[in-house]
């Protein structure tokens, strides 16, 4: 019986695994009561201590009149205020900021501010409205007396006001002082509002056409960047081929003497795009020559397959005996073959692009927008020269857009099919 009583008194619920202690504490309290519906806290904890009110007398408040210095009509208002602050100025009057509009005399106007397009009475009326409405020129234009004076625009009012302010600042300034004279360009403001009005008055067709032209411009810029990048890559390949050829000729002509190690490192560096860059094994320890024949990971699988096929066509063993001379010659051969492969790809891309432009030109010539295509003859380097006969259309119709779609090595295989389709397309459907 004693054991059963103890077990019943110490009966507890075990917290499930994965449940945080704070979440479990919300389910059951010490008295096993249900959690409250509303949050409640009976302990002080980290809560802010309540204000302790003393037994002193509070400061008296009084319903008193006041005037606002910002108003010129002397209106009287009432509000609650502490009795100790009776007779003081209205505290919010300091936020009333007014614009200091300059005042000119009759003599200054006749000597410096006279203008044939403006009378003295009209200028005084403008400055009076500027003081009343704090240079809010839209309101000034609305309240302007257009019946008594000439009808003016907002830009005309601004230009006259700021011109007089600049004149008075120059006249009254002390010699040698640096002035910040306000300048208002009325012509620029008129053009800006005119452009804004045209922008708001566009039709949905014009908006759609503008969006289409912006998209086409982005495509042209993207294709231009891709074409420039391809040109740079091609130039790198040509430079690398020339550099490699010059190095090989220099090595063949040089006498076979043992040179110091320093002079061997003084060879001109070949760009990274020139063939294959094999890693140098300079670490301590024993290495195999066959490791120097292993292709680096930067060479893709496509180039590796093409390289193996070219070696098989040349009758070269893919795994020769790794002697010192054979390793060096084998690596140089593979590097040259990879460089040749890249040059062939670049040549095929250029040839395909030329063929595409030729077919496009023929399609435009058939449409009658430009003259026919005539082949003059071969250049001394073996390339075919093209001459364009003048057509009857406008000069802008004779321009050929050379911004074509970006070319890839795989697109060369579809050269013939793409050329035939390009000849059958209309000029508006060409890429």
TrEMBL record:
Pfam families, per the entry: DMAP1, SANT_DAMP1_like
Subcellular location: Nucleus
Region feature (Disordered): 224-270, 375-431
Broad class of the protein's primary localization: nucleus
Residues in DAMP1 SANT/Myb-like domain copies: 90-168
Domain DNA methyltransferase 1-associated span(s) in chain numbering: 209-367
Keywords of this entry: Chromatin regulator, Nucleus, Transcription, Transcription regulation
A Gene Ontology cellular-component term: NuA4 histone acetyltransferase complex
Ranges of biased composition (kind: Basic and acidic residues): 224-233, 389-399
GO molecular function: transcription corepressor activity
A Gene Ontology biological process term: DNA repair
Record protein name field: DNA methyltransferase 1-associated protein 1
Species of origin: Donacobius atricapilla
Biological classification of the source: Eukaryota, Metazoa, Chordata, Craniata, Vertebrata
């Amino acid at each position: 019986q004693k054991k059963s009583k103890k077990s019943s008194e110490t009966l507890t619920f075990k917290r499930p695994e994965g449940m945080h202690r704070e979440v479990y504490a919300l389910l059951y309290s010490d008295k096993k009561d249900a959690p409250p519906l509303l949050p409640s806290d009976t302990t002080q904890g980290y809560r802010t201590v309540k204000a302790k009110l003393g037994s002193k007398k509070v400061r008296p408040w009084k319903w008193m009149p006041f005037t606002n210095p910002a108003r010129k009509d002397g209106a009287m208002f009432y509000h609650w205020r502490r009795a100790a602050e009776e007779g003081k100025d209205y505290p919010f009057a300091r936020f009333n900021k007014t614009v200091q509009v300059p005042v000119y005399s009759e003599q200054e106007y006749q000597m410096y501010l006279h203008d044939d397009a403006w009378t003295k009475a009209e200028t005084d009326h403008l400055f009076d409205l500027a003081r009343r409405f704090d240079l809010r020129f839209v309101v000034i234009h609305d309240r302007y007396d257009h019946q008594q004076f000439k009808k003016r625009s907002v830009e005309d009012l601004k230009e006259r006001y700021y011109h007089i302010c600049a004149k008075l600042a120059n006249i009254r300034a002390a010699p040698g002082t640096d002035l910040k004279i306000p300048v208002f360009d009325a012509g620029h403001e008129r053009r800006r509002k005119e452009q804004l009005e045209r922008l708001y008055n566009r039709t949905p067709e014009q908006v759609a056409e503008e969006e289409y032209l912006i998209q086409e411009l982005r495509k042209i810029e993207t294709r231009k960047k891709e074409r420039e990048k391809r040109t740079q890559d091609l130039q790198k390949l040509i430079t690398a081929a020339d550099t490699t050829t010059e190095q090989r000729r220099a090595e063949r002509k040089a006498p076979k003497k043992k040179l110091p190690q320093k002079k061997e490192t003084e060879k001109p560096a070949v760009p990274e795009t020139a063939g294959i860059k094999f890693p140098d094994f300079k670490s301590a320890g024993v290495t195999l020559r066959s490791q120097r024949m292993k292709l680096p990971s930067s060479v893709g699988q496509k180039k590796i397959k093409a390289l193996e096929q070219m070696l098989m066509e040349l009758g070269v063993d893919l795994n020769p005996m790794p002697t010192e001379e054979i390793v060096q010659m084998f690596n140089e051969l593979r590097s040259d073959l990879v460089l040749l492969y890249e040059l062939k790809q670049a040549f095929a891309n250029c040839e395909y692009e030329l063929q595409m432009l030729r077919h496009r030109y023929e399609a435009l010539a058939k449409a009658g927008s430009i003259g026919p295509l005539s082949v003059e003859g071969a250049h001394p380097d073996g390339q075919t020269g093209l001459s364009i006969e003048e057509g009857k259309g406008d000069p802008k119709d004779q321009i050929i857009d050379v911004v074509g779609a970006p070319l890839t090595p795989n697109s060369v295989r579809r050269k013939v099919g793409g050329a035939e389709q390009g000849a059958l397309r209309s000029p508006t459907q060409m890429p």
